[in-house]
Amino acid sequence: MFKIISKWIHRYFSDEEALLLFVLLAISLVIILTVGKALAPVFF
Question: Are 34 and 40 in contact, with CB atoms under 8 Å apart?
């Protein structure tokens, strides 16, 4: 099982740009989830 997960991680996250995109998406999701109610009027 660990070999399958390791292979998947190496395949998709060996590229620096893909890793950067994943990190930025994760940070954006956390920010929206934590301060989403305060930012809702700004978005609309």
Answer: no
